């Protein structure tokens, strides 16, 4: 066996390894294109994955900003009640420090109505006729009807009411005792005028009775001023303060609601912001930074130098560097929020923050809240990048997905070309090998004949 230029010579004709030769020739033809497809596929896949990670981090960042906007933690206020059995208090935008007294004489209640007792339990048939009947619950001028099919049971009526009208506050239950079962309907709507009545052709309205007393309004006083409400939730009783009544005063003294400055609440809000911001920065760094390897070489991130990410971070930094407020502070550093110059992460100095918040809590609040505050400004600055279909990152993801589909098509075409070339070259070189084998056989035959002529037999 002889080896020539990497080819095995051991065949019956030319001695050439035809399969190996064809593979080498096809590889030489397709290798450059295959390398291009592999490289571009690897790059596009890595970029698509990285864009997805940054998009997820951006969505989390914007979601956190939205939640912060809805809370009042940046106001640096907290609330307490001297008698927490009477109510709960929630602070909202516009809340201000102050003390208020609350007394509760009566809670708002809802209507509750029961059908007559029906023997047979929850599965008792309430429509024994051949056609459907209708059961209607009326409240505040509105009718809520369900169809009761032939053979329909009390349980089916309950389930229909709950599934169709649970979203408007109606709730149906079945109470069963030794006398039988009753359908009881109540509502989350409270106050005078919210009475429930039954009607319709089902017969369930016959003998219906009110359970307990008729619905009533809440009666309370706030700072000595008598008030009345159809609901126990009082969203506008005090500016920026929502009160939910939960009990009556009775012989207890009125409860004092105290809304006061709380630097700890404000610090928690600011640290929540810095943590949220830093999480986004870390996510971006992970996909864009250049890594120095042990041998001194460098490996770029999947999105190193990417213009879309660079533009987004530039927009964010512009907002952070253009802080405005209504008070003395014009930068985050003035109340202890500093930026790591290497990573871009934010941190809060407790000493500097506590000193600033002691006398200028409202100034810190103004930097974060309002239409020109950091929360709103950062939300606006990142909006164009976060849109689910037309945003910068969404469009980039679409482009990368299109690239990957095109590369898949290119791979299919290259495979087809490779298969065709392999088949063509295999036929060609097999034919050549067969021809050489034939010629060799003929040559061997001639040589045998000549040798026999040159060496006659002796007698």
UniProtKB/TrEMBL annotation:
Keywords: Bacterial flagellum, Cell projection, Cilium, Coiled coil, Flagellum, Secreted. Residues 14-110 form the Flagellar hook-associated protein 2 N-terminal domain. One of its GO terms (biological process) is cell adhesion. It is found in: Secreted; Bacterial flagellum. Transmembrane segments: none annotated. One of its GO terms (cellular component) is bacterial-type flagellum hook. Its main location: secreted. Residues 216-440 form the Flagellar hook-associated protein 2 C-terminal domain. InterPro entries: Flagellin_hook_IN_motif, FliD, FliD_C, FliD_N. Homopentamer. Belongs to the FliD family. Required for morphogenesis and for the elongation of the flagellar filament by facilitating polymerization of the flagellin monomers at the tip of growing filament. Forms a capping structure, which prevents flagellin subunits (transported through the central channel of the flagellum) from leaking out without polymerization at the distal end. This is Flagellar hook-associated protein 2. It comes from Pseudomonas yamanorum. The gene is fliD.
């Amino acid at each position: 066996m002889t080896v020539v230029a990497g080819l095995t010579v051991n065949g019956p004709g030319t001695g050439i390894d035809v399969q190996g030769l064809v593979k080498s020739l096809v590889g030489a033809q397709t290798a450059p294109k295959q390398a291009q497809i592999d490289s571009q596929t690897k790059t596009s896949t890595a970029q698509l994955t990285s864009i997805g990670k940054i998009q997820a981090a951006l969505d989390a960042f914007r979601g956190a900003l939205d939640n912060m906007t809805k809370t009042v933690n940046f106001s640096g206020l907290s609330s307490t009640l001297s008698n927490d059995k009477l109510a709960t208090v929630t602070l909202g935008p516009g809340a201000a420090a102050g003390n208020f007294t609350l007394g509760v004489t009566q809670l708002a209640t809802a209507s509750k109505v029961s059908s007559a007792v029906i023997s047979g339990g929850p599965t008792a048939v309430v429509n024994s006729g051949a056609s459907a009947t209708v059961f209607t619950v009326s409240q505040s001028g509105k009718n809520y009807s369900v169809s009761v099919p032939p053979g329909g049971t009390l349980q089916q009526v309950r389930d229909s009411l709950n599934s169709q009208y649970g979203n408007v506050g109606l709730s149906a239950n079945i109470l069963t005792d030794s006398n039988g079962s009753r359908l009881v309907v109540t509502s989350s709507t409270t106050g005078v005028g919210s009475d429930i009545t039954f009607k319709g052709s089902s017969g369930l309205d016959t003998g219906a009775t009110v359970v307990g007393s008729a619905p009533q309004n809440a009666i309370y006083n706030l700072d000595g001023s008598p008030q009345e409400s159809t609901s126990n939730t009082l969203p506008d009783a005090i500016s920026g303060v929502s009160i939910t009544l939960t009990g009556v005063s009775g012989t207890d003294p009125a409860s004092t609601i105290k809304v006061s400055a709380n630097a700890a609440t404000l610090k928690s809000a600011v640290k929540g912001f810095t943590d949220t911001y830093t999480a986004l920065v870390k996510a971006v760094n992970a996909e864009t930074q250049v890594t120095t390897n042990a041998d001194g070489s460098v490996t770029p991130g999947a999105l190193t130098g990417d213009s879309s990410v660079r533009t987004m971070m530039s927009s964010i930094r512009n907002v952070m560097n253009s802080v405005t407020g209504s008070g003395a502070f014009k930068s985050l550093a003035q109340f202890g929020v500093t930026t790591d110059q290497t990573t871009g992460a934010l941190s809060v100095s407790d000493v500097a923050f506590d000193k600033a918040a002691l006398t200028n809590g409202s100034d810190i609040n103004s930097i974060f809240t309002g239409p020109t505050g950091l929360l709103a400004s950062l939300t606006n600055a990142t909006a164009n990048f976060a849109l689910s279909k037309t945003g910068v990152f969404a469009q980039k993801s679409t482009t990368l997905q299109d690239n990957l589909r095109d590369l898949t098509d290119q791979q299919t075409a290259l495979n087809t070309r490779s298969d065709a070339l392999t088949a063509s070259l295999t036929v060609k070189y097999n034919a050549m090998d067969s021809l050489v084998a034939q010629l060799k056989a003929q040559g061997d035959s001639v040589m045998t004949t000549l040798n026999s002529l040159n060496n006659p037999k002796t007698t």
